[in-house]
Amino acid sequence: MAMRSFLRSRRSLSRSLLQPDLLRNPNPNPNYVSRSLIPALLPLRSYSPASDPTTKNPIRDAATDEINGFKSSLNPIEVAKFAAIAETWWDPEGPFKPLHLMNPTRVSFIRSTLCRHFRRDPYSPRPFEGLKILDVGCGGGILSEPLARLGAVVTGIDAVEKNINIARIHAASDPSTSSIDYTCMTAEDLVRENQKFDAVISLEVIEHVAEPLDFCKSLGALAVPGGAVVISTINRTMRAYATTIVAAEYILNWLPKGTHEWSKFVTPEELTLILQRASVSVQEMAGFVYNPLTGNWSLSDDISVNYIAFGIKESSSDSEKTRTVAEQKTDFVS
Ligand SMILES: C[S@@+](CC[C@H](N)C(=O)[O-])C[C@H]1O[C@@H](n2cnc3c(N)ncnc32)[C@H](O)[C@@H]1O
């Protein structure tokens, strides 16, 4: 089902690339809201010049400077939001409650896609035995820990020192997670160290970084050729605005107000193209849907709000071919 939906979105993507009208509104999905509507939707949130991408901001501009070809992914405003709530990572009723509730479903997608890709037995208790997995933007370790329990050799990195401290303390309390290597750093820092991983995973982070394309280039560079890249994020649709911002932040108070900026959400089509430019070819996508009656999340082919993508890092000969195609689409993603 998820694959069918993904193929459908790929088909609509190729249609959009062929039609100049659709290029201006690249997502033919009725849930899609053009970026030109953003000002009309913004009165719900307080305006801050610092969050206005058109305002000159020396801290942010310095953070996006290019170092050794890989631009910094740090958005100081976003990083500060997470530093402010770092103590609450493992509070089951705190602001990260939605991530805790979603986690078994996220792990189930990662387990099935990685087992298929790396030819592992999904029914084995430790199917990731020996796989080197990087969790970028690991926060307090909500994902890193189950990955370690599944046998992976996990490295968790995060831009916020407090998150890393919390993650280390929590993992140390259980022998099955105490081997996780947590460090406060960014993906581009690791690229500079020339590190490589069998799988690079970054869940719910891309919507908080400075430049999604540069961030994905770093993720791609960290995966071995033929390795896996998994990203989850929120689609930039009207439904996502209503549920993840209006409902979750303003009505239900699940998340602190201002946690998400709708304009930073990424559509599945954009993510596919961005990853393609990072030499990662998306193979599979699935949506996460929430059932308010049971409080559970499940996998679905509905990718209109929360979704996850699995891709494969191309070999150098593959990426040469892809780059030529992706370069023609530069205007669409930038
Ligand atoms: C919504 S949380 C997701 C945490 C974790 N990935 C999960 O899903 O359980 C986003 C995390 O990304 C981190 N982060 C934000 N920008 C980052 C960057 N440029 N590099 C690394 N981590 C970053 C934040 O500190 C925060 O811990």
UniProtKB/TrEMBL annotation:
Record field: transmembrane: none
Gene that this sequence comes from: COQ3
UniProt keywords, alphabetically: Magnesium, Membrane, Metal-binding, Methyltransferase, Mitochondrion, Mitochondrion inner membrane, S-adenosyl-L-methionine, Transferase, Ubiquinone biosynthesis
NCBIfam families: UbiG
SUPFAM superfamilies named in the record: S-adenosyl-L-methionine-dependent methyltransferases
Pfam families per the UniProt record, alphabetical: Methyltransf_23
GO biological-process terms attached to the record: methylation
Annotated metabolic or biological route of this protein: Cofactor biosynthesis; ubiquinone biosynthesis
Residues holding S-adenosyl-L-methionine: 106, 137, 158, 203
Name recorded for this polypeptide: Ubiquinone biosynthesis O-methyltransferase, mitochondrial
Catalytic activity, EC: 2.1.1.64, 2.1.1.-, 2.1.1.114
General function of this protein: O-methyltransferase required for two non-consecutive steps during ubiquinone biosynthesis. Catalyzes the 2 O-methylation of 3,4-dihydroxy-5-(all-trans-polyprenyl)benzoic acid into 4-hydroxy-3-methoxy-5-(all-trans-polyprenyl)benzoic acid. Also catalyzes the last step of ubiquinone biosynthesis by mediating methylation of 3-demethylubiquinone into ubiquinone. Also able to mediate the methylation of 3-demethylubiquinol into ubiquinol.
The organism's place on the tree of life at top rank: Eukaryota
Catalytic activity: a 3-demethylubiquinone + S-adenosyl-L-methionine = a ubiquinone + S-adenosyl-L-homocysteine; a 3,4-dihydroxy-5-(all-trans-polyprenyl)benzoate + S-adenosyl-L-methionine = a 4-hydroxy-3-methoxy-5-(all-trans-polyprenyl)benzoate + S-adenosyl-L-homocysteine + H(+); a 3-demethylubiquinol + S-adenosyl-L-methionine = a ubiquinol + S-adenosyl-L-homocysteine + H(+)
Cofactor(s) named in the record: Mg(2+)
A cellular component annotation (GO) from this entry: extrinsic component of mitochondrial inner membrane
Subunit structure, as described in the record: Component of a multi-subunit COQ enzyme complex.
Compartments, as annotated in UniProt: Mitochondrion inner membrane
Keyword Methyltransferase included in the entry's annotation: yes
Provenance organism: Carex littledalei
Family: Belongs to the class I-like SAM-binding methyltransferase superfamily. UbiG/COQ3 family.
A GO MF term: polyprenyldihydroxybenzoate methyltransferase activity
Keyword flag Metal-binding: yes
Membrane topology field: Peripheral membrane protein
Residues the entry annotates as binding Mg(2+): 204, 207-208
